[in-house]
Amino acid sequence: MTATEQRPAGSADGGPGRPHVYEFAIRFGDVDMYRHVNNVTFVAYLEDARTAMMFIDPVKRGIQPVGGCVVHHHEIDYLRPLSFRTEPVRMLTTVRDITAVKFTLDHELVDDDQSYLRATTILAAYDVDQARPRRLRPDERAYLSEFTPAN
User: Fold this and answer.
1) CB–CB of 125/68 below 8 Å?
2) In angstroms, rounded to a whole number, what is the distance separating the alpha carbons of residues 40 and 45?
3) Chain-centre distance of CA 65, in angstroms?
4) What is d(CA 96, CA 107) in angstroms, rounded to the nearest whole number?
5) Superfamily name with CATH number, domain 20-145
6) Which stretches of the chain drop beneath a pLDDT of 50?
């Protein structure tokens, strides 16, 4: 999906290969003394999009959310400054490299004209009660596969 294509916030419909779309507004408090969104805030945006994709949206659809996960690795490319604005931005997220325990999220933060960030997050399924890694459930793998780009 390019920055000029639009999808509704939290969209999980549209079939396999479509990104998850998390739309949000830049908050005044997200802007630092240089008048742009601080790099630490971008990591919070990634977390917000991930939470919507893995927990909130499945519950809204009446399906089991993705269970506990921990971030194994983040890699972020900041493409251009993002300043306070009234227009929303969208975090587009796709999934790749789903294994028994880990999976990779590819993110792109866009508006109708620009890309501001590209990031990769590797997550590991985690049993919070046992404080150890766990295997992804079949239903988790199926849900995550909905956001795997078609080849």
Assistant:
1) yes
2) 9
3) 14
4) 11
5) Hotdog Thioesterase (3.10.129.10)
6) 1-14
